[in-house]
Amino acid sequence: MKRKNDRGFPDRQAIVAFIKANQGNVGTREIAREFGLKNADRVELKRILRELADDGTIKKKRHKVSEPDALPPTLVADITGRDQDGELIASPTEWDEVESGEPPKIRIQMPRRPKPGTVAGVRDRVLLRVEPTSETEGPAYRGHIIKVFDKAKSRILGVFRSLPEGGGRLVPVDKKSADRELNIAAADTHGAQDGDLVSVDIVRTRSFGLASGRVKEKLGSVKSEKAISLIAIYAHDIPLQFSPAAMRDAEAAEPANLKGREDWRDVPLLTIDPPDAKDHDDAVHAQPDEDPNNKGGFIVNVAIADVSFYVRPGSALDRDALDRGNSVYFPDRVVPMLPERISNDLCSLVPGEPRGALAVRMVLGPDGRKRSHSFHRILMRSAAKLSYAQAQAAIDGRPDDTTGPLLDPILRPLYAAYACAKRARDERDPLNLDLPERKILLKSDGTVDRVVVPERLDAHKLIEEFMILANVAAAEMLEKKSLPLIYRVHDEPTLEKVHALAEFLETLDVPFAKSGALRPTTFNRVLAQLEGHDYYPLVSEVVLRAQAQAEYSSENYGHFGLNLRRYAHFTSPIRRYADLVVHRALVRALGLGEGALPDSETPESLGEVAAHISVTERRAMKAERETVDRLIAHHLADRIGASFQGRVSGVTRAGLFVKLAETGADGLIPIRSLGTEYFNYDESRHALVGTRSRTMYQLGDVVDVRLIEAAPIAGALRFELLSSSSETAPRERRPSGPQRRPSFKAQPGRSPDRKRKPGKPKSGKGKKGQGKNKGKNKGKGGGKKGKAW
């Protein structure tokens, strides 16, 4: 029975029960239809839903509502063990324990006759279709395996440590396995020397004592930076070799020709990329619109490498690309999504060579808004390959031999079109978090030379804005054609994060409106108030941490950071599988020929792909971040005892995390080393506060530290505090309100982190759940070298 209250509305219990029964697919429209509510009743219904969201009974995600922290219908999970009945138990692969607590358990239901590729075991990674259970005991969810991604590893990566009596031990590089060493017999060392990075096959396990292993491959000494990226590659199971079938397909591929294409070889498109870019997948061109009805407007052309022509659905190349999900960029190497024959040759838009491309022609009005767009499958010839600095120098009056002839006919119209597009961008007012990106420069021997912060130029912003426009056009076109697609989505911050941010800003006497519709402008106003102030870097970090993380989805709930209603990734199919799917959908929607999205693809099947590539994106980001940490720790290992200036980048009950100004490296100052008094963790202030002296160390404080320990394999640094800069010396304030966290006495020999597991290092990256989500590669369509939005 659909219970209603005295006003004729369904009561709260009935609404919540309906939401729970239809997890992930319920919005205002569905609830109104279920309970027979008229249009005039929707204002009251929205009020009730808002109340339910405010008190935490439900969670609101744009136009959909669900139970708090409910799992999506499709997700990637790791099988962690079995229950007492022998059934497999899994947990979500992506889960923020800091924010959401213990991950929910999922009981795997195996059919009597499982389909090929759906038989899994403990430690396997799988794609699941999940649904909540009505059971009062046991896991809250049950799951059905759609696909097995990764089988449990029988080979592990570690550092070989020789023993005097012969043979040795393997110390795994995986922090989760760091306390599970393997015994290597003398006959099984394969010539490994002490300190070598090796891969080992597990040959025997024991109930008691050490398991045994056999060295399969020597990867080099951990003392060499060239081996450090391999640690992340192996630790995160990033595929390094392409299948023989994929390589055969790549080598057999031939250059595109005019068959089925428009001839754009006379359009002077050019590429603008970082100076060390190996592949060039986008080219741009702009000119004033000659239409008298669009005076002051521009025509902008964006051409993207036609990867769908070479990578056909279901082919060996396609299977390998989907498995990888994206390219992974390290300081010393790239692990590409596609073989070099495709990515660096046939699909790279190199100057002077005919290349197949999928292009979008966009008409901008004088106000910068896109008036219309059309897609074309073309054959093009790039007029030039420029770096950002090179293009900017030409516009700033310093052209070189390459840019001089291009300045008036090509570069000036490009910049004029960008100035026009910027008007609409400024009116749209996307989230303005332009935080500095550091880049590691290596010497020829692979060692760290220096860490730099590349200057943010208008050339970067020009390419970024044109890529965003092209991405929006792709999403709009596919929606118009009613074709399924993979969106790039970014949810608005949760209510809890918004309240936490407001409480923090209140401690700085910065007003922040928590009520009303949340928009990027809300955060931009706060940042604008503090620009040039000592607190600006601090507030920028806290605002960033309040944001949700972008992901891929077959369901559109908008892009909060860019302030866009619909958005898809279209501009980098060489390095992102999501873009390849969008290309295929456009080919199918517009009847552009071969390589189209199969008719069998549905929103449900693309939802499975989106879940997988969201995980591979997180995997790549984590591997890239860990490699940078290890490289810098290796670089600083011979500077123990040196002093550095840095800024407090994280505050936890364990101590202070400090980011060094010189290298951007993060390290920990353990709370026990701050002094002899107790320090309280003040969550609202992001601070540690001394109970006796009231000394406060807060996120964003500038501090001087001494390097005490560097652990290159873990990528961990440990500091001791020397002093605080006069700019932001530790304040002697009494925190407002009650303390939320227990205090810990800062004294030698006592760890403040009482829950630390044995074998887990005390130093290193500890900011779990703070994901900055910054792209380390060419993040086009969200910003090259920018936030991965």
From TrEMBL:
Primary localisation category: cytoplasm
InterPro entries recorded: CSD2, NA-bd_OB-fold, RNase_II/R, RNase_II/R_CS, RNase_II/RNase_R, RNase_R, RNR_Ribonuclease, S1_domain
Biased composition (Basic residues): 753-789
Compartments in which it is found: Cytoplasm
SUPFAM superfamilies to which the protein is assigned, alphabetical: Nucleic acid-binding proteins
Keyword Nuclease among record annotations: yes
Keyword RNA-binding: yes
S1 motif domain mapped to chain residues: 641-722
Keywords: Cytoplasm, Exonuclease, Hydrolase, Nuclease, RNA-binding
Region (Disordered): 273-295, 724-789
GO MF entries: exoribonuclease II activity
Enzyme class label: hydrolase
E.C. number: 3.1.13.1
Catalytic activity, reaction form: Exonucleolytic cleavage in the 3'- to 5'-direction to yield nucleoside 5'-phosphates
Residue stretches of biased makeup (Basic and acidic residues): 275-288
Function recorded in the entry: 3'-5' exoribonuclease that releases 5'-nucleoside monophosphates and is involved in maturation of structured RNAs.
Family named by the database record: Belongs to the RNR ribonuclease family. RNase R subfamily.
Protein name per the record: Ribonuclease R
Gene name tied to this protein: rnr
